[in-house]
Structures are given as C-alpha cells and as structure tokens.
# Entry
Amino acid sequence: MTIKGPRLTNRRLLLAALLVVLAGLVIIFFSSGGGETIRAMRETAAGKPRGEGRGRPKAKEVTLFFVSEADGLLHPESREIPGASSPSEEVEQVVRELVKGSRGSLVAPLPSETRVRQVFLVKDVAYVDLSRDVIDRFAYGSSSELAAIYAVVNTITANFKAVKRVAILVEGSEKETLGGHVDLSRPLLPQPSLVAK
# Structure
C-alpha cells in the first residue's frame, strides 16, 4: 500500500502537469494565429457592403411583348431591368414591367392593377402567380385573352432560355381560364405565330 500511494500521487501530479501544459498550448494557439484569422475575417466582412465581394448583379436588357391595336399581334419592346439575385426574381421583375405597360403606343396586355404575387421555377416551367385583378379588372374577349396570356408566356420564354413553358396561377390557384377562351389547366408553350414579323 505504501508503494502504491506515492505512485498514484505521482501519476496525479503528472496528469495535472500535462493538463496545465495542454491548457497553456490551447491559450497560446487561440491568442496568436487562429484568433487573428477570425478577427481579420470579421473585419473584412464588416468593412464591405453585402455583395461587394461578389459584385452586384448587372442590369439586364429584356424584350417585352405588348399588343398592337392595328393588327392584334404582339410587338416587342426593349426595356432594362435592375439586376436580381435569382432567376425567379428576374422573371418576376419582367412580368411587373409587362403589367406597367408600353412606353410607346402599344396596349398593355394585363390590367394595370394586377400584382405579381410570386414567381417560382420548377425544371423548365415558370409558375407566375397573379392577383385576382387579372380577372376582375378586365373583360376578356377571345383575342384579348389570347394576347394577355401569350404576352406573359412569350415574354418569359424569350428572355429566359431555361424556361420552356409558363403556368399562370391566380391567387395561388390554378384557373381553367381567365375569360373563358384559353385553357390554363397546364403550362403553356410560347406561340411565335402571335408575334408580329
């Protein structure tokens, strides 16, 4: 027993000494190089406005399609939109510009009260969710409904090559039609034949 006692005490002292040395090394490590790196990263991040390091999204020139009263066809009009952080946000901006109407003599295909509630992309389909105003604020004949729908579809597919089809929703739900003439129960392909040559 007397032999084990000093050995146990020596082991405890040795273990305690090792823990003190280890703690000292940890303190030295974090107070020198490691902490400086973290501090430098924080200072760099705090000193730059968000997105500055990556560059801000550039403005984009897009083509919008509006209706001509002369021939009832869709005519292109160029417009610049601000850069966006995602493709769905860019699509949303394009549809908002379409709702604002032409800067020339062309006719806006959608009622000016229409709000773009949401846009989301799934594979090659853009889902465009519009407010109820798109139905309530417009009396659609067959040609005006066709022009309204394909102004949206052709505008989106012309500007976003990854989008092949467009689905139009109203207040988050599928609608059979806006005015009784064009089937909206499935995503629509663009119709180049409706665009003036």
About this structure: Residues 1-56 form one domain. Strands lie at 60-67, 74-81, 116-122, 125-130, 165-170, 173-174. The chain has a mean pLDDT of 81. The helical segments are 4-47, 87-100, 133-136, 142-159.
